[in-house]
Write a structure and sequence with these properties.
79 residues; alpha/beta
């Protein structure tokens, strides 16, 4: 019985960790685009900086739709 409960707790903790971690992947260089998994769906945003209202809105949407697709953002003008 204890083993079963322990597994449930582990699964629950994994779920919580995934919900707490950032749902947004940040691109630093142009080559980062090539590392994205081509079998997944992505929404890519490019912003002037992380303090912009558009970037903040993008991160909120990424959090809300984290189970639907992957969100990727860049503030580097060369990406």
């Amino acid at each position: 019985m204890f083993w079963f409960i322990s597994r449930q707790v582990d699964a629950f903790m994994d779920f919580i960790r995934k919900q707490v971690e950032s749902s947004l992947t940040k691109l630093s260089t142009p080559s980062d685009l090539y590392s994205l998994d081509s079998k997944k769906r992505y929404i890519v945003g490019h912003f002037d900086d992380e303090n912009s209202e558009n970037y903040k809105t993008f991160t909120k949407v990424a959090s809300l739709l984290r189970d639907e697709c992957q969100f990727v953002a860049s503030t580097n003008k060369y990406v």
